[in-house]
Structures are given as C-alpha cells and as structure tokens.
Amino acid sequence: MSSFPSQLAAACHRPLRWLRRALRWLLLGVAGLWLVLLSLWLVLHWAILPNVDRWRPELEARASQWTGSSVRIGSLSVRTSGWMPVLELRDVRLLDGQGQTAVALPQVTAALSARSFLALVPRLEQLYLHEPVLALRMDAQGQLWVGGQPLRQGGDSTALTDWLFSQHEVAIKGGTLTWIDERRPDAQPLALTAVDALLRNGLRRHEVRLDATPPAAWGERFSLRARLTQPLLARAGDWRRWSGLLYADLPQADLAAWRQQVTLPLALTQGAGRLRAWIDVDKGRTRAVNADLALTGVDLRLAEADERLRLPSLQARLSWQALPEGSRWQAKGLQFTLGGERPVHWPTSQLTLSLRHAEAGGPWLPGPLVGGRLQADRLDLALLAQLGRALPVGETLHEALSTRQPQGVVSSLDAEWTGAMSGRQLPPTWRVTASAQDLALRALPAPEASTEHPHPLGQPGWQGAALSLSATQQGGEARLTLRQGSVTWPGLLSVDRLPVPEADLPLQWRREENGWRVQLKPATLHTDDAELKLSGQWRSLPGHPSGHLQLQASAPKLEARAVAKYLPATLPATRQYLADSLLAGQARGLQLKLDGPLHAFPFPTPPKGQAEGVFRVTARADKVRYAFVPSHPADDTRAAYASPWPALAEVSGDLEFDGPGMLIRNAKARVGDLEATVARAQIKDFAHQATLQLEGQWRGTAAGALAYVQSTPLNDWTRSALAKARATGTAQGRLSLQLPLNDLAHSKVQGDVQLNGGDLQVRPDLPTFTQLRAKLDYHQAGFTLQPSTAQWLGGEVRVDGGLQADGVVRFNAQGSASAEGLRQASEWSPLPLLAQSMAGTTRYSARLQWRGDRPDLEVRSSLQGLTLALPDPLRKPAEASWPLRVAVQGAANGKDQLSLDVGSVLTARYERQDERPVRGAIRIGPPGPEAGAPERGVALYLSLPLLDLDAWVPLARQLAGAGPGTPVGSGYLPDQGSVQTPTLRLLGRTLKDVVAGVSVNAGTQRMNLQSDRVAGFLAWTPQANGPGALQARLARLSLPKSETERVEQWVDEGKAGQSAWPSVDLQVEDFELRGMRLGRLNLQASAAAAGAPWHIDTLQLQHPDALLKAQGQWIPARKRTELAWSLALSNSGRFLDAVGYPGTVRGGKGELKGQLGWPGSPLSPEPAQLDGQFSIALGSGQFLKAEPGMARLLGVLSLQSLPRRLLFDWRDVFSDGFSFDDFSGDVHIEHGVARSRNLRMGGVHASVLMDGSADLAAQTTDLRVLIVPEVNAGGASLAYAAINPAVGLSTFLAQLLLRKPIAAANTTHFLVTGPWSAPQVDKVEKPLTPASAPAPAPSASDPVSAP
C-alpha cells in the first residue's frame, strides 16, 4: 500500500492529464474547421463569385418570391477587397401587378457577412440603397401597400421583415418616399425627399434613424429615431415584442398640414413651431409619450370641451403615461398667451392630470372617463375664467367660471374624483385639497323674492383672500383669511362692498341626513369700523333653502355711522333709517345674537304667539349723534327730505335692536345748549307703520330752548309765537313725541317749557321782558301761557295768553312803565332819546296777537304820572292826561303798519317791511287831516304858530348823532317834510313867514326855503371819504353881525381846524352882510380835510357901483385868511355909502388892488390886524366931511381940518372937501399900520403930497403933507410928476427950490399927527434948501415884505 503523499500526488496528476488531452482534440477541431472554411472561401471567390452574373435570373426569381413583387436587376457585380465579398446591384426595380415600376433602386450595395456561414442563410454586413424611390399606401381597409404589394402578416412578408431586421446595417441615402393614406379622403399625398435612413440590428437591439425633408408648406427637415430591444429568442421582425424609445424632432412644422396625415393629440388643428417627442414602447404598445412644444398660432380642443383654444403662443412639455386603469397627462413648464384685445400670459406652471377611463384607442384617444386626478402647482384663476368653455371641466364648473369670474392663484391643487363629470352633476365621489392666494370671487345676485322666500340670499364674493381647503363629498374644512380685502354678499350685506383689512374665518361642514351643517369656529373679522368676533352654525332646513342660522357676534366698539352697514339687507327699512339717523359717535360693547330660520328673519312677534326666532343686538351708545327724524338726499326710491327736527347730540345710553324694532333708553343727550334725558326712544317695527315714540326731559339755557322751538315743528304748533324771540337765563321742560316716520303730518307732541327768571324778547321790535318767570304748555294743537310775571319798560308786568279757540295767538299784558325803562327800550327808536326828557311812571295795557303769520300789537296808556320835558308843543306835566296808542297791524308778506297817537299834538303812521320802515308820515301840530306818506321815506309835517328850533336843535342833534345803522337811524326819523310857521326861531334869529320843504334823494339833502331873510334852494351832498359839497342858489341872503361874531367865536375856540371844509358853490342875487347890501355874491371853494387850507377859487361881489374879485385861502390851522383882490369902482362914493361909510366921498372911479391877510375868518377882516399891500388909482372925486370912525382916516387925508388951524387961508380949497382929479399911491400894511411914501392928490388949485403912516388899531396918524398951489402949472406939474415911491417929500422940496423957486415959495408943508378924531396939524415954517435936503430915501419900488 503506497503512502499517503504518493496517493495525493497521483490524484493531482490525473485531471491535468485529462485537460491536456481535451485541449489537443480542440485544437485539432478548430484547425479542421478553418480548413473547411478556407476551402469554402476559396470556392466562393474562385468558383462562384466570378460567375455571379450568370445566376442573376435565379436571384430575381428568389427576390420576387421574397417580396411578392416581380423583381428586375439591371446588372450584378462583385467586389472583393477582403475576406468577404461585396455585391453591387444596379437598376433594381420592383414591378406591381400591372407591370409598372413600384420601387426603383438605382444602386444597391450589399456586403456579405461571415455570419452567413453560421446561419446558413445570406447575412449582410451592410445593405446600402442609393436614391431609392418608394411609395407607401394605406388603403381604405387599413391594408399597407409597399411597392405595390400588400404587406401581410405571416408567410413571405414575415420572412422578409425577419430577414430585414436580421441584417447588421441597412442604409438609405437620398431616397424619395411617397405616403398615401386613402383612409383620409381629403389628405394630399406626402412626398418626402432627401430621405436618409439608417437601420442597425443586433442580437436583441434595433436602432433606426430617418431624416427627411417634407414639402415646404409642411415645415423643415425632420428626424425620426428609435432605440428598441427584443427578447433573446424572439423573431427579429416580431415588432409587437419590441420595447424601447422612439424620438422625433421637427425643428419647424406646420401642424395644419401634418394633421392631414397624422392624428394629433388634443384635437390640435393649427399651430407652427418646433416639436420634439419621446415615446416609450413596451412590447409593441405605447406606454408613455413626452413632447416638447414651442408653437405659435395654436388652435386646439381639450378633450370634450365645448370651445376651442386659440393661443398666440404655447410652450410646454406634455407627458402622457398609460396606467393600469387609464392614463396620466402632465404638463411641465406650461406657459402660453391667451389671445384677445389684451393678450394675457400664463406663467410657467406644472399640471398633472390622471384619467381613469375604458380601454384607450391610442395615447390621446381615451375612452369614456370613469375618474381622475388633477394636480397643479399653480393655476391662475382669472386666466382659467377667460379660457371658459375651452376647458373640459363639466357644465357646473363652466358656469361657475363664467358667473363667479374668479381671480387669484391656486397652488398645491390636488383633486381626485371617481365617476363621470357631465352636465351639472358632480362625480359621486371626489376629494380636493388646495390653497389659494390673492383670491377674488364675484358675488352672485340674490334671486327674485317670492312668497315662500321673501328674503333670498345671493352668493358671496370677496377680494384679497387666501384660502386653504380640504373637502370631500361628505364634508370638509376651510380657512378663509383676508388681508386688505373686501366682502360682497347680495341679499345679506347692505353695502355693495365691505372693506375688510383683516379676517380669519375657519369653517367646517358635513353632510347630514337632512342636508348640510356648516360650522363657523371662533373667527375674527376686522373692518374699517370694528373688530368683530364671530361664531355659529348654519344647517339645512327642509323646504327652506335659506336654512337655520345660529350666530353670535361681539365687538368692543363700532362707529355709529357704520351700524346700518352691518345689519342684514333683509332689514331695508331698519338699515335705511339707521344709515340716515346715526350720524356720529360709537356703539360700545356690541353683542349680537341670531337664532332662527332665515326665511322668517327678523322674527317679528305676531299679535298672538311667539316669534319664530331671536334677533337681538345690544350696545352702549357713546356720544352718538342721533337724528331721530333724519334728513336724506334724493335717490331712486325717495325724494330729498330735510328734517325739521335737530339731531340729539352726545347720546349715551342703552341701545337695543330686538327683531324688527329699536329701543334707546336711560340715555343722556344734548340738543344745542340743552341737556336732555331720554327715558325712552322706541320704534317697535320699522317695516310696519314705523312710529318713533320719544319721551324725555331737558334743561339748559333759555336761548337754547328757544332755538330748539324755532328750528322744529314746535314753531308751527305754537303758531310761530316765538319765531323771532330771543332769551337769556335758564329753562327746563318735558317733551313727548309720537312721530310716524312715513307720515309726519300726523305727529303728536306734548310738553312744556319753564323760564326761570331770565330775559325774553318776543320780537326784535319789542323791548325785552326781564326777570321772566313763565310756564308754557304745548301740544300739537296749540299752547297756553300760564299767568306769568316779568319786568318790562321799567316796571312789573303780568302776561298770559295762548292759542285761542278762534285760531288766534293772543298775549295780554298789564303793567307800569317808567321813564328810565323807556330809555332802555332801544327797540322803539327814537323813544330812548326822547325819554331822556321824561320822568315819572305811568300805567299801560298791551295786547299782542297773531293771526296766521301776521302779528298785531296794541299798547294803550293815559301817560298820567309821566312828565315830558320836551319843547313845545310836546311839553307835558305829570298830572296831564294824554291818551297814547301804539298799534302794529300785520299784513301779508312780512308787511305791517305802525301807528302812533299822542293826545292831539302828534300822529305818526309807518308802513314797514320785515319790521323796517318803508315809508311814513309824522304830523306835529293841531289836529287836522291825516298827512299822506311819500312813496319812499318818512315825511315830517310841522304846522305851528311858533316853532322854536333853537329849543329843538339839541334833541335833533342827539337823534342825528346816532348815525345810520343804529336804531335811531333805522328809518323812523324823517328824511323829508315841510314846515309852515309865522315865526321861526333859529340860531338866535327870528324868521318870519317861514315856508320850507326838505327832501333827501340819493344821499343829497335838498331844501327850498322862503322867509324874510333867506330865500332860495340849498343842496348838501355828503361824501363817504370827504367833507361833502354844498350848493346854494339864493335869491337873498342876510347875515347879521351876530352870525359873523359866532363864526369868529368858533374860529377862536379852535374848532375850525378840527373840522373838514366842504366844497362850496354859492350864488346869491342879493347879499347882505352886517346890514351892508353888497349885491350879487359868487363863491366857489374846494373841499379840504380837517386842518388843511380851504382854497377860495372864486370870490366875487358885484355891486352896482363896484366889482370885487378875490381868490385865496383860509388856513384853519393858523386861523388866517389870505386874499389877492381887486376892487373896480365906478362910483366910489355910492359904494362907500353902501358899505357903511356914507358922505365920505362924492364920485370917484378907479381901481384898488393888492394882497391882504388877517387872522380870522373870511367874513371878518379886522383892519387893525391887516397885513399886505395895495395900490390906489382913483379920479374925478371929492372928499366930503367924514364921520367919526374908520371914515375919520379919510377925513384926515382930505385935510378938512386945515382951514380951522392955519393962518394961511386954504379954506376955499379944503373946507368942504378936496376935489381931486387924480388920487393914487401905494400903501403897505404891517400889523395894522399902513405906510405910504407916495400918496398924491391932484386937483384944480393944488397938488397934495403925503408921506407917513396911520395906525389902524390906535386910529392915529403921522403924516407929512406938502401942498403945492397951482400958481403955475409948472410947480404943480413938477410936484405931481416928480413924486414917486423912490422920492420923499424932503428931496422933492430941495429939487423944487432949485428948479422952481417961485413955486417953492408958495408951497406949504404940514405935519399931521395924533388921533383921527382930533388930529394935530403943525405947519413947518423953515423950508428945505438944497443943502439941507436929506439923502434920497430908498426907492418905493423896492420890494416890501408882506406878512
């Protein structure tokens, strides 16, 4: 026995030995095979292939058998460039049954494959067809014809396809393919050119590529590709077992042309653009299709949609996938443009639609739907609404999209259903979850109301909402939130749109046996007016679609104006009333409870029984402004209405709405200045005879109470008795109203007003009642004033009255009046000023009544006890009885008549409009016919035996001083009239036989006056911004010395400088001043303001013997008059007689002219204060004996005293006055001292020369007089010619001695000094010699300054 190692070694060597033997036999087999193959290859190349063309008939026959068509081969050749030969066939044609060429193959190249030896059948490494021409035809029965031969399943056709798909590679270059589909009668044949195709086959793999160019109208060159696999043992041509991917790329295709030959998905009839498609095939069946679309001008129809979609552009990746129970559609990157006037762009989104349907006829030809699922990441609802019936979503959704017009974006949509969606029926089973943002939904109007459904509700709409939803056919839940949105709910909300800044509304609903139940979980709703908290539920109610609602709501506060906004529109009357009546303020702590069937809302309580539900709103009114009878503008259902009742302000109390009514109780309020307590304000039913019942009390100012009465229907119910009243103090009262809101004419009222010691003025033209304590009871039919007391006209008065049975409102008063009280009665102008002259008291009775809108007033008194300290004829002692009657009788249109009778001395009648006099007449004097009133204004008629105007002037000035616009100047005083009296005392003067007429027209006061001293016409026109203007045309005017002295006194007191000076246009035919009749006066002066110079433009006095002309100014500030004047004398003697210097001069004519000034008025030139200068040029006169006074100066100048005092006898020359042929010279006056150096008088017998001065104030003189006798003409002539203002008497005498010694010897020289009444005359004995003559004096022509 061998050892173990030896056995192990032997066991290891046996397998190696067996392996070596196997390898040896394998090598021998392979070598033998190669020898066989080499032998066959040598036979093929050297024996068969060189003679292949001889076998062409056998090849044609064999090919005809394979193809089923007659095959003709033009030539056959072989090329060998390697181990395997290449066959080249030219002009290969397949003929149809008629012997026509069905397929033309100009060149066919076939490279044999070595696999042919293994398969024992010819296998080609490559089959190349160059520019083949092929026609494919599908007949009407669905049979495919290739090259004129039908392509049948099985038999030779199966062998041909198996052989074709067994070849390694088949290539076609530049081919032409024509496709004809006889199943489409309208389709034109499709001719594809430049067809390049490549088919590569493997053991399990098939790869195909086809590139072809369609006709130009069909698009650009396209490419079709496929990569498919088959089972390992399957036949190569059994395509039903193939699986893989097909790909198509159409860079530019016109779908309208392609649809003639190809069935397109989605009923796509038009469109152009690029298409790419990937088709998944599983065992010959299409399982999935993915297509990229970039099209323009698309026209398609989605499934069973009613309308087509027309899209200017469409981009998407569309996917279809077969499912076990249907198919799934998906759109990725979907975006398109919806056409129209304003194109809308659908942004990029993704949709997935899974459909369950019966067996499909193709990828896009599903059978009837039995369910589905839709998933989307983004849906634009506004675009979906525009797509409308182009969407296959069923009639219900179609109608919803059309009517609700949704907007917003839906995201995360997942909807699944089972069952068909057709018509208006929803699938029997469905589920949906979604969320939406920026959601808007149009509300639907409420249907027409009916007897069964009187308050139908529409469907709500909203804007600015976000929604999250999860629902099934059995129920669901949702949360609706709003941010800066709004809600619309026809039939429920009263406003068209309720802004909602914020809201959170969680909802749940579920299906029950009798319908649905919807629950509102605790929700919040913030509006512009309130922050509401809501909760409740709604459930279906059989027979009543509106159902049953339970709702609780609360709000911390709500603006009062917004209360109506939140009431249901089913309460139109309540809502309308509250919208008009709640004007301001807030409702706090608002609580709402609603529980009941909505068809019975607002649950009125029947006469018998209980209400069907509860509707109650409670709140606390806080400073609410409540117009309980509101105004409203005009609208479609009602005319405009202005309420006569003022609103209650600051109402604070309990506010409650219960069913169809409203109640306010325990409230405080204000009405103007009144504080009110509203015990109850209730409207039981707004819808049926709405009547407001209001009860309350008030207190406040009497003025506020009057304002309330005057501004409300209380004014009419009190017959406007207090319509014009004014009051002070406090008042209080009660008020109870029943106001049918739709028939206010049948309102009822009851209440009272109490005045607590204040003041009351019943009418503006009546004095005020003071310390009045009164109570007025009123109701809708009238009122009664209980006996009341007050102070009136300075005494106590008792008043009562009210609405009488005859419809007249009458007040009666009994009391006493005092002079002091009458002074306070400013309403009875000008009585207060007249009462300044009254004293004492007197009794009176008064009656005030209204009939309609016409008030009547009558006051009567005997005036006993009242003293009238007025000028005659109105002076009355206290004990005298003068019956007084004052009556106001009302007329229509605001007119009335006022009459006043005082004894037998005064009557007055006025016609008034709105309590202002329009015209009237006043008569003072003995009884006579009633004076007529003018058309406008008030006339005064005075007819008295003696009229002392000086006594009346102070009172008249007081009356006039009140001015326009004051009670005194309000039209009761006369603005025209007439005066007739034998004696008139005025300004201290007595005018006789006075007849005057006065009128005022357009502000100008005119007077015609006739008396013994003044006669003519005067007009005074005041100016608003100036001193006025005076115009006078007088026949005569006499101003006595007293008048001028009064003017001087006025000037001395400085009043002239404080007054403005009017413009004056004065013409007097016969002017007399201080007893001097000066002739015709013409004065024209310009107006001047106070203190400014008054310019005298023209001053002219025309006397029969003289004419004075002057112009200058009166300077009030300096109290000075300055005039430049000239006096032309035709007979100076008679003129001096007229001005008060009679017998001074006889004859004499000439002119005096110069400038004079003096302190004082122009009426009173005072010689003693004159300044200025003038010149004298007179002739043909004679000085007469002068009387004492100012004329004495002329006596001195006339040298009448010389005959009595001189030894030298000049008596025959001067004793009776010096007759002169010429009297001339220049006189300068300064401070009343007149100086002259050249006065000269020339007569027949002598010439007189004078040099010196005269003091006009002291009436003294200091003159040197030189008398030159007329011995010969030479001396007098020399004297007359030589003397001039530049030569004094001394110089003249010296010259006279030298030139005329004889005349000088006869010349007499005098000195005249002393007073004018007794002048001292001294003769100068020593004549002047030339040596002693003084130096020449300054020339008289040198200027002399005047003051």
TrEMBL record:
Q: Where is the composition biased (Low complexity)?
A: 1330-1347
Domain annotation YhdP central: ranges? 18-1321
Note the superkingdom of the native organism: Bacteria
Tell me the first and last residues of the signal peptide.
none
Q: Which UniProt keywords apply?
A: Membrane, Transmembrane, Transmembrane helix
| Lipoprotein as UniProt keyword | no
Protein's UniProt keywords contain Transmembrane = yes
Q: Which Pfam families match?
A: YhdP (PF13116)
InterPro entries in the cross-refs: YhdP, YhdP_central
Q: Where is this region: Disordered?
A: 1322-1347
Transmembrane segment boundaries: 25-48
Q: Which PANTHER family does the UniProt record give?
A: PROTEASE, PROTEASE-RELATED
Q: What is this protein called?
A: TIGR02099 family protein
